[in-house]
Amino acid sequence: MREKVICGLDVGSSKVCAVIAGFLPAEKQLNILGVGEERCSGLKHGVVVNIENTCRAISQAVEKAEQEAEVKVKDVIVNINGHHIEGHMHQGATKIPRADREITSEDIERVINSARAVPLSSDRQIIHAIPLDFKVDNQAGVENPAGMEGSHLEVDVMLITGDCAPMNNLDKCITRSGLGIKRTVSTLLAPTCTVVASEEKELGCILVDIGAQTINMAIFVGGALKYIGEIDMGSDYITYDLAYGLKTSFNEAKRIKEDFGCAVTDNILETEIKYVGVDGQSSHKTTNKEVNKIIEPRVDDIIDLIAEEIASSGHQQMVPSGIILSGGGSELKGLDEAIRRKISNFQVRLGRPRNIKGKEDRANSPKYATAVGLMEYIMNLDKEPWMSDVSHASHGGFWDKLKAWFEEVF
Ligand SMILES: Nc1ncnc2c1ncn2[C@@H]1O[C@H](COP(=O)(O)OP(=O)(O)OP(=O)(O)O)[C@@H](O)[C@H]1O
Ligand SMILES: [Mg+2]
After folding, report:
1. Selection from 212, 258, 189 nearest residue 17 by Cα
2. Pocket around ligand 1: residues whose beta carbon is below 6 Å from it?
3. How far does the centroid of ligand 2 lie from the alpha carbon of residue 211, in Å?
């Protein structure tokens, strides 16, 4: 069977990352071919504020990934992020009009469309309509009603909506970089698709993606997405505190944070750290203990905000699989332990892209969870009932749908 290629493009607040993967339909596993990363200063809090800078970073990230993969990509699956994205539950209902009362895919599409028919202001649009729970003649908990008999079909749908302007600006950046968009997927959904096991979702879990300037959360109970939340905060705030405290540049502070920072300060051996001052010339010294003292209040702040968001979701008692972390910010040493200590009763683990092969070492970092998850999202569309996203409704079967997403490579 011939391999197809697919490209996940994570346009983040600190970097653009392109991951190219090959895919053999029979194997249903991504074969990582190339990863390209480029720093990007064109976004603030997940939203494009400078088209030129973002275009440059997108082109360079994709080019690097193409060189490593030795293929060219025409289209990408891209993420949309930012505080403007919201998720709300809506209900839909329809009658089954035929005498045999057997529910068809057209009935399912009709009931989901009835849930989508909500008044939205002209500057907002639906990004995802995710059916979470169907009810057939008042019997709740139906995962997939196709083929069942009934006269009345209802559905609970999570509608994820966003502002049109940031979405159009992101589209512009992709098209001006000479690429096409296969699909736009919310950053709130993408990492889950690759770092969380289906058993964890079934039992109940929370995905927390800690990026540079945003923290995204998705809560699953009984296998279904129940809550999404976004916090305007991220690991760059720790970097700014360090730059301030040590009187050095953002880049030097970032290096110190990533190499020496630790969220848990007990039993730590003192190490000397040399760095360059904000003038770019003067030499300075500090220690890892001093660094940790500076970052501690911000780390506490971040954990408090995550705890508040979990509490406000109302689902904190229903997530025995605990917290799964992704995003570059989750790589701060000891952060999982610090969260475990502060938000007691929760298991916490670092999530890395799963179910990948090929150059898997290149892509198995938590910071690549979004780029890899974007590709997994597309593959999962028909695999999991809750993922049966109908924003781009299609009547075809699984492989018919996939045909549209994958490009021939050989
Ligand atoms: N080893 C590390 N230790 C501590 N922090 C790290 C480490 N690696 C990366 N980071 C931090 O993670 C952040 C970048 O994470 P990520 O790449 O997930 O963000 P992004 O996707 O660009 O941003 P956002 O999701 O907010 O739009 C930066 O602040 C970076 O300094
Ligand atoms: Mg991100």
Report:
1. 212
2. 10, 12-15, 46, 81, 211-214, 234-236, 239, 254, 257-258, 261, 327-329, 331-332, 367
3. 5
Which atom, in ligand 1's list, is nearest to the CA of 187? Answer: 25
Domains of the chain: 86-162 (3.30.1490.110), 197-350 (3.30.420.40)
C-alpha–C-alpha distance, residues 193 and 124, integer Å: 25
- Rounded distance between C-alpha atoms, residue 107 and residue 104, angstroms: 5
Q: In the structure encoding, which two tokens stand for residue 264, read together?
A: 């848990």
Q: 191 to each of 32, 366, 370, how far by Cα in Å?
A: 16, 9, 5
Burial level of 318, CB count in 10 A (0-12/13-18/19+)?
middle
- What mean pLDDT is reported for the chain? 91
Q: Which residue matches tokens 């730590």?
A: 268
For residue 209, pLDDT beyond 80:
yes
Q: Please give the distance, rounded to the nearest whole angstrom, from the Cα atom of residue 210 to the centre of ligand 1.
A: 7
Name the 3-class secondary structure at 156. Answer: strand
pTM of the prediction? 0.92
pLDDT at 94 over 60: yes
Residue 143: pLDDT band (50, 70, 90) is: confident
Nearest to 8 by CA among 380, 386, 396, 410: 380
Which residue of 194, 331, 333, 352 sits with most ligand 1 atoms within 8 Å of its CB, as the best mutation to test the pocket? 331
Q: Which residue's alpha carbon is nearest to atom 2 within ligand 1?
A: 258
How much distance in Å is there from the Cα of 233 to the middle of ligand 2?
A: 12
Give pLDDT tens digits for 389-403.
Answer: 444 333 344 334 444
Confidence of residue 405 (pLDDT cuts 50, 70, 90): very low
